[in-house]
Amino acid sequence: MEATSSTTLALSSPPTAAARRSPAKAIVTSHHLRHSSVPALHLRAVPGPSFRALPSPGFPGWRRKRGSGLVVRAEMFGQLTTGLESAWNKLRGTDQLTKDNIAEPMRDIRRALLEADVSLPVVRSFIESVTEKAVGTDVIRGVKPEQQLVKVVNDELVQLMGGEVSDLVFAKTAPTVILLAGLQGVGKTTVCAKLAYYLKKMGKSCMLIAADVYRPAAIDQLTILGKQVGVPVYSEGTEAKPSQIAKNGIKEAKSKKTDVIIVDTAGRLQVDKAMMSELKEVKRAVNPTEVLLVVDAMTGQEAASLVSTFNVEIGITGAILTKLDGDSRGGAALSIKEVSGKPIKFVGRGERMEDLEPFYPDRMAQRILGMGDVLSFVEKAQEVMRQEDAEELQKKILSAKFNFNDFLKQTQAIAQMGSFSRIIGMIPGMNKVTPAQIREAEKNLKFMESMINVMTPEERERPELLAESRERRIRVAKESGKNERQVSQLVAQLFRMRAQMQKMMGAMQGQDTPDMEGLMDSIKAEEQAAAGTGKRRRKYGNLRRRDLDAMRGFRRR
Ligand SMILES: Nc1nc2c(ncn2[C@@H]2O[C@H](COP(=O)(O)OP(=O)(O)OP(=O)(O)O)[C@@H](O)[C@H]2O)c(=O)[nH]1
Question: Where is this region: Disordered (predicted)?
Answer without folding.
Answer: 1-22, 523-557
